[in-house]
Amino acid sequence: MAELSRRLGGPIAALAVAAVAIWLVLLVALPDLLMIDYSLRPNLPPSEIGGPQDVHSLANYAVLWSNKIHLGIFFRTIWASSLVTVITLVVCYPVAFYLAKVAKPSNAALLVLLLIIPFWINEILRTFAWYIVLAYNGPLNRVLTGLGIMARPIRWYGTAGVMVGMVYAYILFMVFPLTNAMESLDRNQIDAARDLGASRWRIHRRIVIPHAKPGIATGCVMTFMLAAGSYAVPSLLGSPSSRWFTEIIYNWFFEGGNWNLGAAYAFLLLLLCIVFIAVMMRLFRVSLADIAR
C-alpha cells in the first residue's frame, strides 16, 4: 500500500485498493459463499425452504463418491486437464524462448500479433472452426487421405479433438507468462554457457528453465484452471466417452434443476483448482507473489 501510494498518490491508491476489494467481495467471495451454502442444503420445493428439512449437511458431496460414472468423469477431467497443461507447455516453451531471446523486436511483434489476432474472435466461434476442421469429411481428413498418410478418414471428435481444441484455446495463457519470465534473463548467461561448451539442452535445463519457473508455474496454473473449467470445447469437440466434469455440473444446474447438487460439484472443482495451485507452488518453489508478478 505504501509503495502504491508513493507511485500513484494517496487518493488514487486508496481508490484502486477499494475497487479491488469491492471486486473481490462482490464477484469472488460472495458468489463462492453462496455456492457453499447451496451445496450444503438439500434440493427442496420452494414451500419447504426454511422448514425442518432445510438443514446443512454433506449429503450432496457424498453423491459424487457414490456415483461411479460421475466420479470417473471427475478423475478423467483431472487427468485430461493435466495432459492439456503439459502439451501446452511443450508447445509454447520454444515459442516463448524465440520471442524472448532469439527474435528481433520487429519479428517478435509480428509473431505476437499473429498469435493474438485469432483470439479477437469469440471462443465458441473458434471452437466451431475446429469442429469443421476435425469433421469426418473435413479439411484435415481430406488432406491426410489425399497425401496418403491415412487410408481412410478417422473420427477426431472425442479425446483427441478436445485436446487439440483446448491447447489452441489456451495457448496465449502459457506463452505470455513464459515470455515475460524469460525476458528478464541476461543473455550473457546463455552466451557464457555456450562458450564453455554446454549443450543446448543443458543450457535450458540449468539456466533458462530455473529462471523461468515463475512463468512456468503461472502458465500451468492458468491453463489447468481454464481447461478444467471449460465447457464449450468439450461439449462441441467431445464425445460421450470424453465427457467433461463441467458438462455434469451444467446438467445439474440447467437440465436436472438441482442447483444444490450442481453447487457441490462446482465447489469440488474449485477445490481441485486450489490444490493444483498449491502443488505448482510446491513443485516450482514459487510464492503467490512470484506467480502474480
Cα shape: globular
Q: And the CATH topology?
A: MetI-like fold
**What Rg do the Cα atoms give?**
23 Å
Class per helix and strand makeup: mainly alpha
User: Share of helix among residues?
Assistant: over 70%
Instruction: Compute the number of helices.
Output: 16
What percent strand? under 5%
Average pLDDT score? 88
- Largest sheet, strands/sense/barrel: none
- Give the CATH class: Mainly Alpha
Note down, in words, how this protein is organized:
The chain starts with a helix and ends with a helix. Helix 10 runs antiparallel to helix 11 and helix 12 packs antiparallel against helix 15. With 293 residues, it is mainly α. It is built from 16 helices and no strands. 75% of the residues lie in helices and 0% in strands. The longest helix is centred in the N-terminal third of the chain and has 35 residues. It is globular. It has one domain: MetI-like (MetI-like fold), CATH 1.10.3720. The model has no long low-confidence stretch (mean pLDDT 88).
What is shown here, in short?
It contains 16 helices and no strands. The two termini are 16 Å apart.
